[in-house]
Amino acid sequence: MTAALNAPAGTSLLLSGNEAIARGAWEAGVKVATSYPGTPATEILEAIGLYPGLHAQFSVNEKVAMEVAIGAAMSGVRALCSMKHVGMNVAADAFMTYTLTGTKGGLVIVVADDVGLSSSQNEQDSRYWGRFGHMPVLEPADSQEALAMVKEAFEISERFLTPVILRATTRVCHVKAMATVGERQAPAKAEFVPEPQRWVMVPGNAKNRLPLMAARDKDLRAFAEETALTVVDEGNDRRIGFVTSGPVAMSLRETFPEAPILKLGFSHPLPVERIKAFAATVGALVVAEETEPLIENELKAAGVPVRGKDILPLFGELLPHVLAAAVRPLLGLPAPAAPAAPAKLFPRPPTLCPACPHLAVYHTLARLRKKVLIAGDIGCYTLGAGHPWGALDTCVSMGASMGVALGMDKARDAEDRDKAVLAVIGDSTFLHMGMQGLMDITYTGGNVTVLLMDNSTTGMTGGQNHPANGRDLLGNPAPKVDFAKLVTALGVPPERVHTVDPYQLPVLDRTLRQEIATPGPSVIITNRPCTLIDAFERHKPFHTDEDACTGCGKCIDIGCPAISVSRRETAVRKNGKEVELTFARIDTAICTGCGMCVNVCASEAIVRDEPAAKEEAR
Ligand SMILES: Cc1ncc(C[n+]2csc(CCOP(=O)(O)OP(=O)(O)O)c2C)c(N)n1
Asked: Residues 307, 287: contact at Cβ < 8 Å?
């Protein structure tokens, strides 16, 4: 629920940047909003989906999301497509042509860059896409600007007939700040007018668009010189002036209260003349930009002497202490003392939840570790790479486990196939980009066993629905993809497709061993829901019977956070051999009674809280 949903125009309220973007899109009269989840952008679409009078959807991936938005914009309505930075790589094939086509209804691409890498596999600077795709780039610094700039972005999009990029960063998306909301503008009526020369981008038509795009670039450059989105915040100490964009402006103001700052709300195309005029009023010009030196390089190419990445870091956020350390020496001031190291806390690596069905898969894989290569993928299950399982060999990008596994298989000669190749992939990831890879595996006769971990949700990003869990964006019933049928249709022989309850550890183990012993492609679908969604059933918790526990430690090897070591002991066996015994304790406050650990306890020392309920144990 977003606080802005029912707020009347003129109300000021505390909104995250994502909520503000959603409200701004609604006020702008957006008719269609699309996305694929990804931190830090996920909540934009979740919030938009609550507003009346528009269609919002999470698509199966960012490319489809972009194409849906393009279809709506071609029909003359305003459309917004949001995603995290890596989503742009997926969506690029669609928008790199649509930018040439030029839009009809306003099309705004909101991209959230994870500067500082709090929750991503890489750090990318999405402002490059503006340069690459000839699209203007707007950069809000806080929630109020985010709200206003989305609306402005639609105006620019329709005025110049171009898709517009709104680049936010994690700090803008997730920080809450005051924003005043406005009225909703009535959405346009959809009307697709056939214009084959424009909408059908075959070479003959596309060629004709190139000069138009070049002319648009020129118009946008002129617009950049005059737009009120870019402002100068004056200061009395003119020894150094800053050129910046996004939330860095606030860190600069905090660090250098008297310095003049030119803040580029509209950061591409660059208003070179405006910056030159600003440069003439200050002693030295420093470009403070997150993350790549785009503005800096363009200014250097235009002959403007600037400092930038020679003193500032190329990655991570430009927070006040970072700026102070880099810039104060230019003013003859000592660099400030490095911020105090954070207090040493007991290390707590991220881990899977109690009863997470992925635990079963990784427990099984850890026991087969010497016999398999495991291509991994992106989701909660990437945690399988960590302690205690160490059961992933690779993680590249969403869906990559399929192709990487196939590549590992094809790279080897028959005599080198001493290990089986496995791929692990989540349900949302399989739908996003995994199934194409599986098709390649079956088409080329790859020797790959795929573990498709269907937990009925997009767990990693907070539990979004998808086409295989039978629910739509708002949780209403929706058509449901049948994974067993889908993978069979993609070419996996039906007898090599198994659906297994992962809590039944012996069955999972047996099925996996059987499949990796047989050449050719196979798929094992595990079908227990994520413990954080409604479909998950809780049972009475288990506890350990201290008297019965033999200290074998097998339940601890599962890696369930509900199970911990209660004590260790060295015992001497009858044959005189010393053995280390590990006794376990179950935290009944977080145990969900899934019974996975009961499967591995040979001494029957794991029992339900109430003895009468023991029969319920799986
Ligand atoms: C191109 C791209 N889009 C989005 C993301 C964000 N993201 C990371 S994992 C993931 C989905 C994971 O869901 P699933 O495959 O069902 O696995 P689970 O987390 O439920 O185990 C998403 C959306 C990303 N990393 N890359």
From this structure: yes
